[in-house]
Amino acid sequence: MIEKIDGFEVNLNEKSKRIINIDITDEILNKLIFPFNKFDITALEYKPFTRFTIAKSLDDLSNNKLSKFLNNIIRDRETGCFIIKPKKLISKIDEIFLVKLSTAVAHLIGTPNHDAMAGKYYARFHVKHEDKSDSYLRKAYTNMDLHTDGTYVKEKTDWLLMSKLEEKNVEGGETAMLHLDDWEHCDELYNDPIAKESFIWGSPKSKNIDYKVEHPVFSSDKEGKPQISYIDQFPEPKNMKQGTFLQKLSDSLEESNNKIVTKLPVGSAVVANNYFWLHGRKPFKENKELSRELLRIRGSFFIN
Predict the structure, then answer these.
(1) Which of 51, 64, 207, 294 is least buried, going by the fewest C-beta atoms within 10 A?
(2) What tens digit of pLDDT does each residue of 145-188 get?
(3) What's the DSSP call for residue 128?
């Protein structure tokens, strides 16, 4: 899916034709500085309409082609994922600019969910050498297995944006992704009767969610194709059959030969359809000075 958009360089990702790379040129980045400076982060957090204002500033610079293009990618089963980033990090781009850029991109696709972990429409979190958290999210030296987001919340989670704001003294920690249609064991697991059973999904205290939800691991889209809602840490199997099914699911995902593993530069934002793309992270090589900061936004599509 290659389209000509002035100010944006569009290419197929070198690891997968399902992923579209979108590089933002210096010309566009320089033109964004003024409208982005109009609002500080507090304004974006407290006044939701300001987020749409900066999103429109970004879209206007593409003659309103970018929003249509992004929505076509993210909703298309054949693709469903793009990586958008500055072509190069010019001097005026800092972490605040990247938060605003991620906000603008997200608000061209849909409405973000409230992120209970952070108490905002987005979450920022660090991965460092030492960690005392209660989830794999911040554990640098543990593999974060393939999963989808929003498994334990009541809100609809159609899409996910993950942006790399900062990285120092990092080796390893590559992004891992897998499209359901490329997974060798999808049909087998999807057609297992246990896959459609109701599972209980909870979450650790850091997520700030005081309820549990129930839903199956697999469902079907309008065309009858598989959709998945799964993360290894949060299901609470009701019996041996559910427990062994989850183990088989976990093993077959991690052992897939079609997993995409890629290293993303600072400033990159990966945006993926949350129903048929799974994502994870490889372990980092141990380093006491390791530091990475990520931003997460997840939400629902606009209803057109």
Answers:
(1) 64
(2) 999 999 999 999 999 999 999 999 999 999 999 999 999 999 99
(3) E
Tokens of 86: 């500055």
The answer to whether the CB of 155 falls within 8 A of the CB of 114 is yes
| Residue range 52-109, pLDDT digits in tens | 999 999 999 999 999 999 999 999 999 999 999 999 877 678 999 999 999 999 999 9
Q: Are the C-beta atoms of 17 and 74 separated by less than 8 Å?
A: no
The closest of 113, 97, 94, 124 to 48, measured between CA atoms, is 113
The residue with tokens 């359809």 is: 273
The answer to whether the CB of 165 falls within 8 A of the CB of 99 is: yes
Q: Can you tell me the mean pLDDT for 188-204?
A: 95
Token pair, residue 207, equals 């997520």
Please, are residues 100 and 38 in contact by the beta-carbon 8 Å criterion?
no
pLDDT at 130: 82
Question: Pairing mode, if any, of strands 199-201 and 277-281?
Answer: unpaired
Is residue 148 within 8 Å of 231, Cβ to Cβ?
yes
Q: How many CB atoms lie within 10 A of CB 106?
A: 26
Q: Which tokens in the block code for residue 32?
A: 């964004």
Coil, helix or strand at residue 71: helix
Distances, alpha carbon 45 to alpha carbons 52, 109, 229, in Å: 12, 18, 28
Q: What share of the chain is helix, strand, coil (3-state, %, to 5)?
A: 30, 30, 40
Q: How many CB atoms are closer than 10 A to CB 43?
A: 14
Q: Which domains does the chain have, with CATH numbers?
A: 8-135+157-168+264-301 (3.60.130.10)
Report the alpha-carbon distance of residue 236 to residue 197 in Å, rounded: 13
